[in-house]
């Protein structure tokens, strides 16, 4: 019976030590937590705009700057215009429905400007001719798309 009491005595002492150690740790944690400075200044990051120079990048990568300038894609004039409809009439009496740069189509009469340097010169059946001036050479000939069957 003596051995049973002595084993229980050490178990009780060890359990008591663990409970007091946890209590002391908790007290230390909460003491540090409550005494800490709560007014922390926010981190200020400075954002700068980076300027990109395509010629400098081409030079770094070993390209000739003249080749880099020629590598920029050129949009053809014909790809900017889409013919949606044609009304061919008497000379100087026709009109066309043309979409410019993917915008909704608008009606244009012969002689009217689509944009700077491009005007509707003439209409003929299912096609129109765009030029810089009324009597100048044709810049682009647009045709109506074929009907699907």
Structure report:
The model has no long low-confidence stretch (mean pLDDT 80). Among the domains are: 9-36; 74-143, SH3 type barrels (Roll), CATH 2.30.30. The strands form two sheets. A four-stranded antiparallel beta sheet has the order 4-5-6-7, with no helix packed on it. The chain is rod-shaped and about 120 Å long. The relative contact order is 0.09. Strand 6 and strand 7 form a beta hairpin. The protein contains four helices and seven strands; from the N terminus they run H-H-H-H-E-E-E-E-E-E-E. The protein is α+β, with helices and mostly antiparallel strands. Keywords: Cell inner membrane, Cell membrane, Membrane, Protein transport, Transmembrane, Transmembrane helix, Transport. It comes from Polaromonas vacuolata. This is Type II secretion system protein GspC N-terminal domain-containing protein. It is found in: Cell inner membrane. Pfam families: T2SSC.
Question: Features of this protein?
Answer:
149 residues; alpha+beta; SH3 type barrels; 4 helices; 7 strands; transmembrane; T2SS_GspC_N; Type II secretion system protein GspC N-terminal domain-containing protein
